[in-house]
Amino acid sequence: AEFNLLALLLQNAGEVVSREVLAEKGLGRALQAYDRRIETHMVQIRKKLGSQPDGSPRIKTVRGAGYQYVLSQ
User: Fold this and answer.
1) 54 to each of 30, 41, 70, how far by Cα in Å?
2) Each residue of 21-65: pLDDT tens digit?
3) What is the C-alpha separation between 13 and 7, in angstroms, rounded?
4) Are 8 and 42 in contact (CB under 8 A)?
5) Cα–chain-centroid distance for residue 48?
6) What kind and span of H or E run contains 49?
7) Is the separation of the CB atoms in 35 and 42 below 8 Å?
8) In this structure, are residues 1 and 26 in contact, taking their beta carbons and an 8 Å threshold?
9) At what angle do helices 37-49 and 2-11 cross, to 10 degrees?
10) Which strands make up the sheet holding 16-17, listed edge to edge?
């Protein structure tokens, strides 16, 4: 599941990917009310990837929209 979610973020690097899209394409099921699976997986992915060389996060949470893999500048 983590690999699928990360692959989706990388395919759309620099763009916000909604939680609904991540659930459907990354986990293979529709997002349900109070579903925290995406957040749980994102915590694990962030731990494994670490931060950018400058200390900024690789994956940004965009409140109310989804997640974004941040391109380094």
Assistant:
1) 36, 24, 12
2) 999 999 999 999 898 999 999 999 999 999 999 999 999 999 999
3) 10
4) no
5) 13
6) helix 37-49
7) no
8) yes
9) 80
10) 16-17, 66-69, 59-62
